[in-house]
Amino acid sequence: DEYDVKICCMGAGYVGGPTMAVIAKMCPRVRVCVVDLNQKQIDAWNTDELPIYEPGLLDVVKTARGRNLFFSTDISGEIQKADIVFISVNTPTKTQGIGAGRAANIKNCELCARTIAEVSTTDKIVVEKSTVPVRTAEAIRRVLKCNDKGLNFQVLSNPEFLAEGTAIDDLESPDRVLIGGSQSPEGLAAAEKLASVYANWIPRERILTTNLWSSECSKLVANAFLAQRVSSINSISALCESTGADVSEISRAVGMDDRIGKRFLQASVGFGGSCFQKDILNLVYLCETYGLDECAEYWNQVVKMNDYQKKRFSEKMVAKMFNTVTGKKISILGYAFKKDTGDVRETPSMFVVKDLYAEGARIHVYDPQVKREDMWSEMAYTCGISPDTDPKLDAAVTTSPDAYAACEGSHSVAILTEWDEFKTLDYEKIYKSMSKPAFIFDGRNILDHDKLREIGFEVHAIGKPDPNAFDDL
Ligand code: NAD
Ligand code: UDX
After folding, report:
1. Could you give the ipTM of this predicted complex?
2. Ligand 2 neighbourhood includes 337 CB (under 6 angstroms)
3. 31 with 18: CB under 8 angstroms?
């Protein structure tokens, strides 16, 4: 028929949706269908109210949807049609059983493999797009091999490196695309077939091929290295607050060394998102499994430092506000785990809100993209509290329609996500509307602290010492 290659992607989430939309946009002769178990999710992908917020995504979807990009819940039918099946389902940290709290649960990946083996009527290339423990491809290969139809399946690993908020740019011009496969002639041919899809828009020298295990492992290592940089600079932010050094000056000075590089050295209230913690814990658990306890402990420190940073932030808020926030209105600007996304998985804001709630504060949250229901479902999943189990929570946390409403009459403002719009708010107006002394806690170092102090605020920021506390020589 009219298509060169047919792709089915299992999992229409933050990765499956944008990744497939970009493949479809860039390769008009490739038919791409994204399938999911969740009917609501698929229905949303078929409207202009997409299920996720990502700058530029709607335009890409509109270019290709109905042409060579489809969203469907007909999982069997779409697998049968496809030459290449991507597995792009969630692989969350296990919450119970062996390795609970550390190991990644690959049950969804295994289920996909079982479905593929069951419904396929022709040979296929099966691509692991989900982030998985090293050697998961072996499990997938064995499940696929058990089909009783004599079909051949080649398993590839093709981890995704996109970051939320910049997914479209990341997919349209990635630093690299990584494809791992078996080194047999069939494996190499399968890798070449997938590479030729990417080669429609990505220069060949950026398409890297490796063996399966290197590919699976590289994804965990990339996220561990990135998160480690954030924890490293965050550890230094604590030292700065105690010594009079300024963490932004340190990031600049250290990052100008080409060997270190300047990116991912932005001190913060802590890293969040669905990947960093999960993938490091996955690596930690793998190291433990192979008896490499020192390696496990080394990487575990990155997560521990992040927990410390989040806790340190809420404790500092309480300490500076005369050791009590009970009954005080506190404004939280930003709830997403980073700007330009509505995603709240593992967001540091959630941990700060939880701590302030425990102190009896009245919390008003404003975020331009986060839905109240998503806030609660993530808090229930991660912290085990929700308005259902804890009716006072609903009354204690208000979601505000805008930043000014969130700040009106409050004792303090905490900036927890680096949304651009927070930089240009009218802080004179906010100051006037607040209780005095008016505090600002800048958890992302995006505001002009000198200017805020001129207005009258008491400002505390990450890794920025109190200007009156240390003498300038
Ligand atoms: P997600 O939760 O947003 O989406 C996963 C989707 O898979 C859900 O819609 C779910 O209904 C669907 N699903 C689950 N089991 C299924 C099955 N058996 N058949 C069909 N659909 C099924 O998850 P995500 O953020 O897209 O992440 C997917 C994978 O990609 C994870 O392994 C993650 O670690 C990895 N990853 C995520 C990011 C990111 O930025 N979110 C980046 C790189 C890699
Ligand atoms: C990350 C990886 O960057 C991406 O390659 C991978 O595919 C998925 O995981 P993501 O979690 O979407 O992407 O966002 P990222 O930009 O990496 O930010 C993660 C967290 O670290 C955010 O909470 C962010 O605010 C924080 N961060 C990042 C910092 O606190 N300081 C920094 O300098 C950079």
Report:
1. 0.99
2. yes
3. no
